[in-house]
Amino acid sequence: MQNQLPDQTGSESKDSAKMADGCEGKLQLVHRHIRAFPDFPKKGILFRDICPILKSPAALTAVIDLFEERVRSHHQQVDLIVGLDARGFLFGPLLAQRLGVGFVLVRKKGKLPGPTICVQYDLEYGTAEAEIQEDAVAPGQKVLIIDDLLATGGTLYAACELMKKQQAQIQGCMVIIELKDLNGADRLKPHSVFSLLQY
After folding, report:
1. Active site residue 87
2. Tens digit of each residue's pLDDT (9 = 90 or more) over 98-130
3. Which of 87, 98, 161, 187 is catalytic?
4. How far is it, in rounded angstroms, from Cα 59 to Cα 26?
5. How far apart are CA 53 and CA 85, in angstroms?
């Protein structure tokens, strides 16, 4: 059964300029709560740390507000939010609760009980496996996939492959941070990627 999202955005005649200003202010708040650590976890990598977002109720609310606004304006029907292990679990349930839909976990292999479906995906050095419970997503359900960061796109690609195996309809992927130079969005095509911030 498809879930028509209830309209909680108020009157359609809201001042669009005022709404844009609000979005810009929220983006700036989120940006201020992301720290950069050079040479972590290894030399040559600039690590984007989202921990300050989680520590700030205002910044965390801004993230979920921005995701919610995106979903309500671009996806009229969503049945499930699918979150990636592990930081997708931090933001996905909050967004799902706002939207009044369910949340489903994609985990590393061996972490979920009961029958599961698994896919293997490539890492920089070697491979890994991701899995979902067999009954988590029904064929035809409309899903949005969420994580904190898009780099090379390996884990998000694996999640998309899992959704295809479940015959779900992928509405797109959502992240807080996209590292543009790594071209992860290209790997996910034809699925769209919405990112709050790009570096």
Report:
1. yes
2. 999 999 999 999 999 999 999 999 876 789 999
3. 87
4. 8
5. 18
